[in-house]
Design goal:
Layout (H helix, E strand, L loop, with lengths): L3 H4 L3 E5 L8 H11 L5 E5 L5 E2 L2 E4 L10 E4 L6 H11 L4 E4 L9 H16 L3 E3 L5 E4 L3 E3 L7 E10 L2 H14 L3 E6 L8 H10 L9 E6 L5 H13 L3 E6 L13 H5 L2 H12 L2 E3 L2 H11 L9 E5 L2 H13 L10 H8 L11 E2 L6 H13 L6 E5 L9 H13 L4 E4 L7 H9 L8 H13 L7 E3 L5 H10 L4 E2 L2 H10 L8 E3 L2 H11 L3 E6 L10 E5 L2 H12 L6 E6 L4 E10 L3 E8 L3 H4 L3 E5 L4 H9 L4 H5 L9 H16 L4 E11 L4 E3 L2 E5 L8 E2 L1 H19 L8 E4 L4 E4 L40 E2 L17 E4 L9 E4 L6 H15 L1
Parallel strand pairs: 1-2, 1-5, 2-4, 5-6, 6-7, 10-11, 10-12, 12-13, 13-14, 15-16, 15-17, 17-18
Antiparallel strand pairs: 3-4, 8-9, 8-11, 19-32, 20-30, 21-24, 22-23, 22-24, 25-26, 25-28, 26-27, 28-29, 28-30, 31-34, 32-33, 35-36
Helix pairs in contact: 3-4, 5-10, 6-7, 7-9, 10-16, 11-16, 13-14, 14-15, 17-18, 19-20, 22-24
């Protein structure tokens, strides 16, 4: 809960205020005073009558009513003080700097719970405990230094760690990065990173609010909320970069699959950030560098010109950009010759443009003009200018300043002499600019920004995926663990994923009979062990019955083998798709090269289910091995469209089968025409899958998706994809068909017979459901008794115009939900 009293308090009291500015209570009061806080400022200190010129009170019961209280007192004292301030002094915002709460002991956690209960009861905000505070242009309620320049269009920094926030500010201040607000959420007992993002999203003012958000996150408690509000802000024009700390796993665990060996909680974070459109960073320097880039005009392309008077930094920057897939195109031809003729002898213009150490400000201005107005293949300019101390740089930096004020193309100032030319750099920053002192860090940060995808569409692709059949298969499985090969095949076929023909048996004569029918050569694989190749459990290109019989006998003697699988021998590039369920995040889908390379190279890309086609293509393109997939050195590429389609179909399968905890499809064999799954393993855990309550957005997608999939199966053919379009407040389900079955029209009473009355028009079915409550996942269809569903209603309608929906609203809270639903279907039938 973020209140006005936190953001713009008319009065502030510092409980535990001190004249010693080396204590938190003294430092925060100093910052409030020096920051020019214009409201009423009060202090509580039983030993003083005045603290740093501010009137002091002996007890919190003595102060007037106050908006915001800052507590810098021992943890055991905080709950009672909060109770008094909230109940008697109308305090509606608290910042608790004190440590010694849930981050240390159980007793501290109890204190924290008491504080939370009090602030929630009175509708107050709580920042902390165990934080450095909160700061904006109105009040500097932090006890730390430095205090950055604050500007309404500066950066919003949200940090899980107070110390890290301080060090990020240290890094940012030297670069000239300005801030709008700094949030140190500490233990985040009430307000965490997700809460701040939600507030910023729901109250976003395009003209007044900052468009840049930098995050330091130590734990993601609500991935769905982070995803929703971060992607919403980005769609509104904001740009977000984040560090997620604690991504490594200490030690190694025995993995039960290829995916388990590769996937980790960090894969889930990577997938979440990609889906949201967040630029992921891995250090403070990288984060603040990305923040500085965000302040410049947005890049429109990947081609850079480098202007420098020092060859080495230009070469290193060229390498950094090229490594990230960005371009430093060669400049040649009449225009390049014309520019070179106006520079000193020995200068080069091939790109980097080196004007030499003796180059003048006029030479820099000339090069900037050519890059802005004449070199059409240049999208942005990087200017590297320092000094060995022989000359001052004021004039040179003035040229940069003027160009950055007028040029359309972004100009990145790289001024490395922050000590030798400290005065000149400081003067440049005072004019509102940023500085990138290190060219390689800049090149790396640019790569991260340009390669970060846009926020993904909130949709589930259902076309060709038989959701009811998937549920029947899952429901028929009673035991946890790896499921039988024929059940894996059935699941994949239900999702429309093409499979190689195969046969599994512990009997030699049956295996040989299948091989004769399929035709030689064939492949034989053991069933049971996970890593088949490690134990000699895969044999390729078996060309005769005798060879197959020998391999069968050998394989059945290997440890853990229960059967032998035989398949026709296919050729193609080996690909890999896998998935792993991560708590809170859902399924993380991975893709890459297949076979043994998936673990050796670990070149995989991750996405968070459900995936759109745009996300699937982005995952494929981000692979280091993409050149192999695309085709290189005379080798034909694979069918990228089919690969993406299987990724999307698998993600939809997983969305409706949350019991699946791990899945490998490895390898898929790919050619320029086809991509076929050759081997797959699936592990299930069913203990609580049907009893658990899941988040509303996921539950509504599942329940409504099951019903719509059932309705779609009633149509003889679907000519366009069926999609579920999700948002936080409603679900919109669009089903389109142009099929018609001849027959007499009559009112529809059940979705199974809706197909009889279809004219060649577009049908649009819309469901709007209140998402403030949780819904049991086990409800199979909306047309069944809807116990546990609470909402504003479900509306069904049809129109010849795809953007229009007309229909009847049904009260889903009533006991007559079943009858009302049938009535809505009758209305639908009459309209058709």
């Amino acid at each position: 809960m973020i209140t006005t009293q936190l953001l713009h308090p008319a009065s502030i009291v510092v409980v535990g205020a001190s004249n010693n500015v080396h204590k938190p209570g003294g430092a925060i009061l100093r910052n409030l005073i020096s920051g020019g806080y214009a409201g009423e400022l009060r202090a509580v200190n039983p030993k003083e009558q005045e603290v740093q010129g501010v009137k002091a009170y002996a007890d919190v019961r003595d102060i007037p009513e106050t908006d915001l209280a800052i507590l810098a007192i021992p943890a055991p004292m905080c709950p009672d003080v909060v109770e008094v301030l909230a109940a008697e002094k109308q305090v509606r915002a608290f910042i608790i700097l004190s440590a010694g709460f849930g981050e240390e002991t159980h007793e501290g956690a109890v204190l924290e719970d008491r504080i939370l209960e009090t602030v929630n009861r009175y509708g107050a905000s709580l920042i902390g405990p165990n934080c450095i505070g909160y700061m904006n242009a109105w009040h500097h309620s932090v006890f730390s230094q430095p205090i950055p320049q604050l500007h309404p269009q500066g950066v919003d920094l949200i940090s899980s760690s107070g110390a890290t926030a301080v060090f990020i500010l240290e890094s940012a201040v030297t670069k000239g990065l300005q801030f709008n607000s700094v949030w140190s959420v500490g233990n985040a007992k009430q307000i965490g990173v997700e809460d701040v993002l939600q507030y910023m999203d729901e109250h976003f003012d395009e003209e007044k609010d900052s468009h840049i958000k930098l995050l330091y996150i130590e734990s993601i408690g609500d991935p769905d909320r982070l995803l929703f509000h971060a992607s919403s802000l980005i769609r509104k024009g904001c740009r977000i970069a984040a560090i997620k700390a604690g991504s490594s796993e200490s030690g190694s665990r025995a993995a039960s699959s290829h995916t388990g060996a590769i996937a980790s909680s960090d894969s889930a974070v990577e997938a979440l950030f990609r889906k949201a459109g967040i630029v992921r960073c891995f250090s403070r320097e990288e984060l603040t560098t990305v923040g500085c880039i965000f302040t410049l005009p947005e890049l429109k392309g990947r081609n850079f010109a480098i202007i420098t008077h020092a060859g080495g930094p230009g070469v290193m920057l060229t390498d950094a950009l090229s490594k990230g897939g960005l371009n430093v195109p060669k400049l040649e031809g009449p225009l390049a010759d014309e520019l070179k003729a106006q520079l000193y002898p020995g200068a080069s213009v091939g790109n980097p443009i080196d004007i030499l150490a003796t180059g003048t400000p006029q030479h820099l201005k000339l090069c900037l003009d050519y890059c802005e107005n004449k070199f059409e293949n240049i999208d942005a300019v990087m200017a590297i200018f320092g000094t060995p101390g022989l000359v001052t740089m004021f004039d040179m930096y003035d040229v940069l300043h003027e160009a950055m004020q007028t040029c359309r193309k972004p100009i990145f100032p790289i001024l490395p002499s922050v000590n030798t030319a400290g005065a000149e750099v400081a003067d440049f920053l005072k004019k509102g600019h940023v500085n990138f002192a290190d060219e390689v860090t800049l090149g790396t940060a640019l790569t991260r920004i340009i390669n970060a995808p846009r926020p993904a569409a909130n949709e589930i692709e259902l076309f060709g995926v038989d959701v009811p059949r998937i549920r029947r298969i899952i429901d028929s499985i009673t035991d946890d663990g790896y499921i039988a090969p024929h059940q894996v095949q059935a699941l994949l076929r239900s999702a429309g994923i093409p499979l190689v023909d195969e046969f599994v048996s512990p009997k030699k004569d049956e295996v040989l009979a299948f091989a004769r029918r399929a035709g030689f050569p064939v492949v034989a694989k053991v069933v049971g062990p996970v890593h088949k190749s490690d134990i000699g459990g895969v044999v390729l290109n078996i060309k005769s019955e005798q060879h197959l019989a020998l391999e069968f006998d050998r394989m059945m003697q290997l440890p853990g083998v229960t059967s032998v699988m035989v398949q026709p021998m296919l050729k193609g590039t080996e690909l890999f798709i896998g998935a792993k369920y991560e708590e809170k995040f859902g399924h993380v889908v991975l893709c890459g090269l297949g076979g043994i390379f998936v673990e050796v190279l670990k070149d995989v890309s991750s996405g968070l289910a459900p995936l759109s086609y745009a996300e699937a293509y982005s995952m494929i393109h981000s692979l280091r091995a993409y050149k192999i997939i695309k085709g290189t050195r005379g080798q034909k590429g694979v069918n990228e469209d089919k690969f993406a389609e299987i990724i999307v179909r698998l993600s939809t399968l997983l969305r409706f089968a949350t019991e699946i905890k791990e899945m490998d499809i490895n390898p898929l064999l790919a050619t320029e025409k086809h991509v076929i799954a050759v081997d797959a393993r699936t592990a299930l855990v069913k203990a609580v899958a049907h009893l658990a309550l899941i988040s509303t957005q996921k539950a509504l997608a599942t329940v409504t998706g099951l019903y719509l999939a059932f309705l779609a199966r009633a149509f003889d053919k679907l000519h366009q994809p069926l999609k579920i379009v999700m948002s936080q407040l409603k679900l919109r389900i669009a089903c389109r068909t142009s099929h018609r079955e001849n027959g007499k029209q009559s009112p529809a009473t059940h979705p199974c017979i809706v197909k009889r009355f279809l004219e060649p028009i577009q049908i649009r079915i819309i469901a709007t459901v209140d998402t403030r409550h949780h819904i049991p996942l086990h409800l199979p269809f909306l047309c069944q008794q809807a116990n546990g569903i609470h909402g504003t209603g479900i509306a069904f309608g049809v129109s010849t115009q795809p953007v229009v929906a007309i229909g009847k609203t049904v009260d889903t809270d009533s006991d007559g939900m079943q009858a009302s639903f049938q009535q809505a279907l009758q209305t639908l039938g009459r309209q058709i």
